[in-house]
Request: fold
Amino acid sequence: MALLKLQMLPVSQVLLGGFLALICYLSVLSIYRIFLHPLAKYPGPIQYKLSEWPLLWQAYKGNRHIRHVRDHGKYGSIVRIAPNALSFNTASALNAIYGPRSANVKKGEWYKTFDVAAGSYSSFTETDKDIHAAKRRVLSPAFSVESQKLNEPVIIDMIERFCDTIKPTTDDWDSTSWNITDVATHLGFDIMGGLVLGCDFCSVQEETNRHLADSVLPASKFLYWVSYLPMAVLIRPLLRTKLFEILGGKPVVDNNRLIDYASRQVQLRSQDRKHSEHGSIPDRFDYLSRIVGAQDKKTGWRPTQADLNTETLNLINAGADPYSGSLAALIFYLVHNIGCLQKATVEVRTAFASSNEIYSGSKLNSCVYLYACIEESLRRAAPVPSHMPRVVMSGGMEIDGHLLPEGTVVGVSAYSIHHSPTHFSDPWSFKPERWMESDVVTPEDISHARTAFNPFSLGTRGCIGKSVAYLQLKLTLAHVIYRYDLRVAPEDPKRGCGESSMEQGREREDEFQLWDSFGFGRDGPVVQFRKAQ
Ligand code: HEM
Reply:
């Protein structure tokens, strides 16, 4: 009867009624979110309290990390950044949220979209703590000391070929200028191709596979904000469809090619393995060989084909891009801080008698200034600059004395805490010396800084590739500065720098600009090389 009456109403009245109902609903929701929500007492801009969309817009624009610094500067160490999310800016919160396995949080919804197009969740995106633990145990032999030792020659070979590619043709400064962002992206991808798949993409030297290397960051950028969409759950089934390729464009198409490539490699490796059981295939050391056919001893879990596809893709992406971004940032800070570059260069050229000697061991470990430059550059340009979102589980959790209810999303931005004057004096300056004991830097200063330093995150969800990433960065920088002098290309000295015409927070000319995308977008520096003088 009521339906009949509704059908008889003019369309305009039905629309007006619907509109008024929507206004009422939004008004009640807004009042609830501002005044009655369990997080109502936490400070933050009103638009953040009302909706998730400002956060999503920041993810789209790549400036969330910049907003975190600004918001914490204005509102203090806890900011409500979305109706249901809090950002913290203290070392105690960082360690409570990301440190112990027992912390009553798990990875948030965001992770469920990011790499599921490959068919499953990887060790990086798995949100269930127990399943994650099994995945991590299966991966761990690939990251053992023995595996790193066996794979180091692959890394060195790629780096040496990279150095040959950029080799100056005269004794003076070469006229060719190199955009380090581009070449580091290719080198990072090639190294991961070698480590994960045992193959040689040659993207530093040749065009053929560059579209794959160049797809990693744009795909991450696209999936970064898409994964924050409130209705991302509806999008997940569409990720491998033509529609999504049209919407996402080239990065999605190329990323799908990379997924297909990874899947084919997994298939081939599974066949190899069957053959090798009959003794016909030589031993391989790459990561894929270690996970194909592996089984978790504790739970009996075995990765399916879809698990292997996703893990392979994850290892390439998670390994390649943060290293490439870190290398670009490192070289940026060195060529813009000539004193630091000279010190690191003298140290390396004194430690080694020839570039053939540059491999892991006591000589490389003696290069403490080189290591300090890497630490300082990771501080200034942490590859995941914004939040790694965690969600509070049943029973709630206390952080910095605040009891938070189940479902609250919490996080600490590495970029924000890495620039906090509470932990780093003169935080906007590039000072490798802050990581080295001296008359002015005490061991306590260093450990105080370390409690807030988290480029690789912490605990059981921290980076499994941390040790190999440090090795890659040390080897690359040592090989490059042993062989060559570096300078900013005179025709393009400001590439990668901030400027006053950019948004607030990007005005520092001596800061390498990051566009947050779970990884970071970047450009430059443009550099010239000369044979070591
Ligand atoms: C400078 C280089 C690198 C940096 C700064 C870095 C940083 C990180 C961070 C911050 C996380 C935590 C992400 C989160 O909680 O959401 C992470 C996780 C991870 N990283 Fe790295 N990473 C680097 C290199 C690598 C390399 C070389 C590999 C592999 C070869 C790798 C593999 C992984 C994996 C598999 C995870 C997921 C770990 C888990 O949840 O169990 N990363 N990395």
In short: The longest strand covers residues 526-531. DSSP finds 23 helices and twelve strands in the chain. The longest helix spans residues 305-335.
